Amino acid sequence: MRRFDFAPPDRIRSAQWSALRGILKDAYDLVPFYRERFEAAGLRPDDVRSPDELLRLAPVARDEVAAHFPDRITAAGIPRDDWRFAATSGTTSQRMIVFHDFAKREAVRAAAVRSFRFTGLRLGSRSVEIPPDVCNVQCGLKREAEPSLMDYLRSVGPKGLRDREAMATFRGLVERQVVFRRVTLSAFDARGTCQPGEVLDEYVRTLAAARPALFKALPAYLLALACRIRRTGQEPPPVGEIRPMGSALAPSARARIAEAFRCPVVEDYGTAELGPIACECAPGSGLHLFSDLFYIEHVRDGARVGPGDLGRILITDLTNRAMPLIRYDIGDAGVRLDGPCPCGRGTERFRVVGRTRDILVVPPGRLLPEHTVTDYLYAYTGVEWFQILQRSDRRFDLQVAGDGQDGLSLEALSRDVAAYLGGDVRVHVRRVETIVPESGGKYRFMKSLARNPL
Ligand SMILES: [Zn+2]
To answer: Staple partner for 322: which of 68, 101, 278, 379, CB 3.0–4.6 Å?
Structure first.
């Protein structure tokens, strides 16, 4: 994988394209759902010779995957004994379940290591994670204790060394006990972004004691801790690198966190159904796609968008043959980045700027993704936390929360935000105690009831 990343761009593209054609062919041959997709488009896999022909195949939405799961969207007629379930987080109704075959699981595992090492982190370094609350409920805190490496090897005996499933389990144990050395802290409670100072200080103390090379947490948690550190003037905990989990950070949010913790903030990108997809090589470099594992498209109204233009992100998984995801609508909006990266990797780069369904559409059809709005509001004095909701074309609700609102005039804020959004809109501003998470444990600082514009 490392060698692949540093190969010349044209060699990367041709390897990626031939893997893509292999997946298209298998999906057509073995998966009823895709066979119908191809037929509806009047296409056969051999017809897809360039990215343009691929555009004719309709993107695959999450709810379509769920609706056709399992029989119609999994490969028929091949052995299933090495398939395993993988589920996305979220509440039961939001969760999506997919099958990963053996090759996919190995690719996910290797890609996790690749992602960890992408910025030079050393394997075996300690990391601390604060995942959203839902993990505590759904993954279960009462998981059985894992056997130690030696105990496991003893239990499978010499013939286990030749059994690839047993070795895969062993690699999983090595991963958790040796490679990542991950400590998981409990999520923020129902009080949301407005946690008492002593609770936040306790997190800071735990981090200071752990001295992690990597600290990962929801953006909301990172921001709350950053605000606390800044406000109290306390020494930030010694953290080597910070990465947000669950969603991408707006530049202003990233700057707030980097400043408070005095450490680099880097993004990686991935989902449970696809595994690690991309990683930044340096703060703000843009995400390098793992192009041996995925094919990415940026589209709007069914057409490809140019570099720098806002588009819907579609991902094709090049590895998982058990349940191919082709032109899968991952739910994020992003921009393609052009030009070579100083790090020397030849893989394509992109940036994620928010969820597609939460893009604000202001007359006459201007699109504002979450990061653009966040950057505007974070620059506004007195706004520490916000949640903005687009109710209709011209009606917006804005909630603000947090300390440091002295001198914040709600009337002025309403006027200024309306002007920012484009004049002829109404912005109803309200002060609230706190911003609380959604049912899945994640936070949504921007929501839209308007039609999804991409
Ligand atoms: Zn780079």
So the answer is: 101
Ligand 1 centroid distance, CA of 112 (Å): 17
241: CB partners within 8 A, 6+ apart: 119, 121, 213, 214, 215, 263, 264, 265, 266
Q: Ligand 1 mean position to 343 CA, how many Å?
A: 4
Instruction: Report the C-alpha gap between 218 and 236 in whole angstroms.
Output: 18
Residue with tokens 């997946």: 23
Q: How far is CA 269 from the centre of its chain?
A: 4
pLDDT tens digits, one per residue of 108-123: 999 999 999 999 999 9
pTM of the entire predicted model? 0.91
6 C-alpha to ligand 1 centroid (Å):
10
* Ligand 1 centroid distance, CA of 285 (Å): 6
Per-residue pLDDT of 337-375, as tens digits, reads 999 999 999 999 999 999 999 999 998 889 999 999 999
Q: Which residues surround ligand 1, an ion (CB under 5 A)?
A: 281, 285, 341, 343, 345
Q: Which of 325, 293, 298 is nearest to 313 (CA)?
A: 298
**How many angstroms separate the alpha carbon of residue 375 from the centre of ligand 1?**
24
Quick one: which of 247, 331, 293 has its CA closest to 113?
293
**Alpha carbon of 280 to ligand 1 centroid (Å):** 7
Beta-strand relationship, 311-317 and 328-337 = antiparallel
In the reported structure, the alpha carbon of residue 295 is separated from the centroid of ligand 1 by a whole-number distance in angstroms of 18
Beta-carbon contacts of residue 411 (< 8 Å; ≥ 6 apart) = 429
**Rounded to the nearest whole angstrom, what is the distance from the C-alpha of residue 278 to the centroid of ligand 1?**
11
Contacts with 132 (C-beta within 8 Å, 6 or more apart), sequence order: 89, 187, 218, 246, 437, 440, 441, 442
Cα 268 to averaged position of ligand 1 atoms, centre (Å): 12
